[in-house]
Amino acid sequence: MLHYNFPPFCVGEARRITGPGRREIGHGALAERSLLGILPSPEEFMYTIRLVSDITESNGSSSMASVCGGSLALMDAGVPVSGHCAGVSVGRFTDASGQKEVYVTDIIGEEDFFGDMDFKVAGTREGVTGVQLDLKARGLNLEQIERIFAQARRGREKILDIMEKAIASPRKELSKYAPKLRSFKIDPDKIGKLIGPGGKMINALQDRYGVKIDVEEDGTVVVSGSDLAKVEACSAEIEAMCAEVKIGALYRGKVVGVKDFGVFVELAPGTDGMCHISELAEGYVEKVSDVAKVGDELLVKVINVDDQGRIKLSHRQALAETAEHEPRANA
């Protein structure tokens, strides 16, 4: 979104400032369209971008100045643009017969008034991203258009040289005042688990981490907040919560329930499994409480997931598997 403001005082006029007129809408649209060619995709950069171009003095092409200033501002803000974009206008003067013609680059106000053309061309070193032509003559032939584009390119490249000396690439980090965003995908079937009954789970996560969580129907999750560490922590918890539990995976979970026949272990928020008493240790276990109590951390291995999604765990097999990978001491 580019807002182009052209107040009366920038051309030495004194009149009431009202809503945007033809000039503001047209020039703003040209500058915005020219800069769209260098912007990253929404997947690469999820932020809404608002550029404001305030014209304080105008004696030339303020729309092309907005392109150049906008490109510099985007890089300075840390937006990962593909490169700089610059613009320049080309004018034309002819004699009364129209046989002799002169093309001038970066025309000023008087040249625009007395000339018969204002050909604006914006782009990068690779190509053109925006064009606008104001013409008082009856038309242009292909040879004239080719000459105009070549002259505009030479002017544009000189401007790009100067811009790149000021800032050659986007800043690595956004402003500390910009919200921090993290986007990732989960299985759409797990959306209900993330939201919870009546929004209980998602609201609890937002309150705990002080973030905002948005979920799309395709499983895209966007976590935003002012503290990057909390955004990352919340994202990690959501990914763990919605991750697919695979047979053979090891988890260090928390005992949330103790029964005579075994214990219930929380593998991730909202995901529990049951470890039978026979899987708590090698040999005979008389009481479950001899091995684990509520609140204990327990290393477990997923040994089965049935058709209803119930997870069967084994502490005994997890200990045996980790012991196999531990280095043995020399005798």
Number of domains: 3
Query: Helix and strand string, N-terminal first?
Result: EHEHEEHEEHEHHEEHEEEEEH
Using the 3D structure, state the CATH architecture of the largest domain.
2-Layer Sandwich
The first-level CATH class of the largest domain is given as Alpha Beta
Which term fits the overall shape? Answer: elongated
Strand content: 25-35%
Neighbour order of strands in the largest sheet: 10-11-12-14-13
* Biggest pleated-sheet summary: 5 strands, mixed, barrel
Helix content: 25-40%
Q: Cα-atom Rg, whole angstroms?
A: 32 Å
CATH superfamily of the largest domain: GHMP Kinase, N-terminal domain
Class from helix and strand fractions: alpha+beta
Distance between the termini: 72 Å
Count of separate DSSP helical elements: 8
Number of strands: 14
Look at the structure and give the mean pLDDT: 88
Q: Which helices and strands appear, and what pairs or packs with what?
A:
Blueprint: E1 2-5, H1 22-36, E2 51-54, H2 62-77, E3 86-94, E4 101-105, H3 109-114, E5 117-123, E6 128-135, H4 142-166, E7 180-185, H5 191-195, H6 200-209, E8 212-215, E9 220-225, H7 228-242, E10 250-259, E11 262-268, E12 271-276, E13 297-305, E14 311-314, H8 315-325
Parallel strand pairs: 1-2, 12-14
Antiparallel strand pairs: 3-4, 3-5, 5-6, 7-9, 8-9, 10-11, 10-13, 11-12, 13-14
Helix pairs in contact: 1-2
